[in-house]
Amino acid sequence: MFELFLTHKNFLIQTLFSILLSLLFIFLKIPTFFLYGLYSYIHPDNLSNGVRAAIRRPESSDSGSGVPSKSNPELRKRGKTKEKLDFDESNAQIFRIKLDDAHLQSRMYSNEYRNSFTISFIAISCLFLQIYLNNGVEKSGFLESGIFVPVMLGIVGVSKLLILLARISFERSASRRLEKQLSVLCGILGVVLGNIGFAISYSLLDFNFGSIDGFGRFLISIIMGCLAGFLFMPATKNARSFWLGTDQLRSNLSMITCGWFGRAILYGNYLLMVLTVLLWINPFSEMLVNKNMGGNQIGNAERLLGNVGFSPSDFGRLRIWCLLSSSLFQVVALRPNLQMYLNEALLSWYQRLHASKVPDLEFSRAKVFLHNHYLCLVVLQFVAPPLLLLLFLGLSQVHVNSFDKYHVVCSLLPCSSFVKEVALFLAWWIIFLSAVYTSVTLMLFRRCNLYIS
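The chain above was modelled as a monomer; its predicted structure follows.
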């Protein structure tokens, strides 16, 4: 009995760890606590009695309403107008509320957000625990090494996130019809690029797909197309939040933009994404690798360039750490991104309130309602890309010798290549798509082809 325990020690540790972590997430409501303290807004039709508005239309210093007072002689002289403005300021007030569990439970996709958040973080924790347990010790058994639990949870987490992203992408009122059409177009382009990309990947990307056959490449291209389509709308929302949070509109409204800490997170997240993407592109990555460590006879220019680079092993670790840091930065940037999404509705209210003497606030009222209604849906769009990145990164770092005895999977694909190289490539593909979509959207904002209203 004791020998059986020692043989399956890692498997038992992984099982107990996942159960305890599940109970911790459920009873402490960590997914809800992750969003606690953010501010949402309500734009009612009429002002309720006894409720004080957080933001009001600017009023006159002498009167509580926007109409000139009859007791002031100066205002009485200037107050003669031929037309009377029919505008009730009580209908223009907006209220700010702090998010808690009661508010989140009434939103669409709230249960899906909690379940996917919990499963994904448990799978990520188990994957990194497996890396720690097998550090320097390799066991060939599928159960003996304990790899069954993290790989099973990782596959379940990836599948659940992809299914949720597919549902969100085609949600009826959550996005415009043009955005859905562009998502489908990006998915088709992703499949095409995946099919033709293996022929040129050796010269442009630092990935080795030599052991993957035609069926494996076709399957990878399908996954690439799905990710290209599903990540389009999350990346564009990320760009909108960046544009609004860093005050590129130059509105100077502290209630709408981020503070200095939030801006630092948004800038750092974007810059780290771009840097991580470049580390796998050969013209840039070759500049950072020391080619002269083996004593090869090369030219003076290449010798000078290679002497200032990393060793191949150190450069490989640097790329892994950059992927990990970028994914964690995206998780940290979830709160400022989500707050900017909610503040976008506040900006719409502010713009229409000051657009004319008798503003029409029906559009801003509808936008505030929709931003509240689809709150958890947008949270899933913000949190799914970094969670998928962490899951693929964890799957790429587990020891793959245990898969050689798993004949059901190994009969279809080469196990070592599929689990390690392909998982690492998909992690890079996710951050590549996010960087490209975000950069293109920001460029369109800068050229005034897109705007926030």
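Residues 24 and 30 are 8 Å apart (CA to CA).
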